Give the backbone structure.
Amino acid sequence: MKNYVSLKEIQEDISVGNISCHELVEGYLDNISKYSDLNAFIEVYKSEALERAIKIDEKIKNQTAGKLAGLIVGIKDNICYKNHHSTAASKMLTNFKSTYSATVVDRLIEEDAIIIGRLNCDEFAMGSSNENSIYGPTKNPINKLYVPGGSSGASAAAVKANLCQLALGTDTGGSIRQPAAFCGVIGLKPTYGLVSRHGLIAFASSFDQIGPLAKSTEDISRVMNVISGLDEHDSTCIGERMNLEVSDNKTKKTFAVFKDVLSFSGLHKSIKSKFKKTIKNLEEKGHTIKYIDLPLLENLVPTYYILTTAEASSNLSRYDGIKYGHQTKASGIDELISTSRTEGFGKEVQRRILLGTYVLSAGYYDAYYTKAQKIRKLIQEQLKSILSENNYILIPTTPNLPFKIGQKNINPTQLYYEDIFTVIANLSGHPAVSFPIGEVENGFFASGQLIGDFFSESDLLGCAKTIINN
C-alpha cells in the first residue's frame, strides 16, 4: 500500500477511485501484521474497522462523509474507547473495558475517522522509552534494536512504519515530542486546556495533554480542528476549537534560542550540528535569532518529577483492588490493598508513587512540593516574558538520539534526563511541536522543537512547516 504523507492525498485518491476506505483499512491491517514484531499495536479492531470502512465508503459515495473520512487512527492505550479494553499497559487494569469513550475519540468518530486499534505505551504513561509495559517494549521501526521513545513510543512507531495514518498520544513531560523525535515524525503537545482530558487515564492532571502524531503538519492541524475546543465533561478545557489551515508563513519571525541548551554537556554532537544548521538557514531567510539565558535549565527535570509524582500518587490511589482493577486474595482489607497494588503496578509506577507520597508527606511538603510549585511559577513567568518579545522559542527536542532497548533501564534517573528539553512546555502549559530537522547517523533524525504562545497552534504548525520545507 502507498505510504501517504497526508490525509489530503488519501482523500484525493478516494475521490478519483484509486482506493476506498475499505482497501485502506485492509492495507493498514496487512502492514500491522507484517510488522507485528514492532509490538506497536496491542489490540487491532479488525472486523470493526472494516465494517466502518464500508459504511464510510457509502457516505463518501452519497457525499455525506465527515471531514476525516479516510483517516485511519491508532489510539494510545491510556485513552478510553467505549466497550474496548483500556489498560494503560498495566496489570492493574488487565481486562478492564471502558464504559465510555474519551471526548477526543467521540469527536474523531463523528467526523468519520476510523479507529484501527490501541497502541502500546509505558505503564500509566510513565517512561521515556516504551519499555515499562506489561506487553513488552515497542521497537523503533528505523532500527528494531532501539527504543522508539516514550511514553507514546508506539504511537510514533506506528505512524513511522505506516501502520496507521495518524496516532493519538499523550504528553505529560514530552511523551509525544520525544518519541516523535526518535522516530522521525511530527508531534504536537497542545496548549494545556485546548484538548479535553475527559476519558484520559490520568498520570499528572495539571500536565497531561492529548495530541496527534503524524507525517505532516496539515494532518495534525486537521485533527486538532476536530478534537480541540470546550468540553462540558472537562472543566480545565478552556480553549476554543481550532479552525485554521496550516500555510507557509512568509513573514519574518524572531526566535529565542537558549544559550544554556546549546552549551549543555549532554547534547549529542549530531543534534547540535543539525540544530545550528537550522538556525543558520533561518538567519539566511531573514529571520532574527536571539540568544538568551535559561538559568533554570538544571531545575526543570527535578521540578517536573516532584510535581508529577505528587499528582500521580494522588491519581493512582483509586486503584486499590476493591472497586475495579487487579485484585488479589487476602485475609484483610489492608493486605488486600497492599498486595493488589504491589502486584498490579510495575516497578517504575511504584517508584513514582513512593516518591510522590514522600514529597507530599507532612515533614517534606514545604521542602519539596511547595518549593517546586514556586519554581514552576518562575518558569511560567519567564516563558511568558520571553514570548512577549519573541515569536517562538526554538530548541532541540531531545539531547540524545535513540538508545538501544535495555541500555538505560538500570539507571532510572538517567532516563528522566531524556526529558530535559521537553518538560518546560508542560511546566508552563505552552504548546510545543517537534519536527525532524535532518537525518543523522544510523537513519535516525535530529529534531527541533518550537514553543509558542498559548493557543497559537495554527501559527506554530505553519512555522514548523516552513522550517521543514526549507
Notes: The domain at 1-470 is CATH 3.90.1300.10 (Amidase signature (AS) enzymes). The chain has a mean pLDDT of 96.
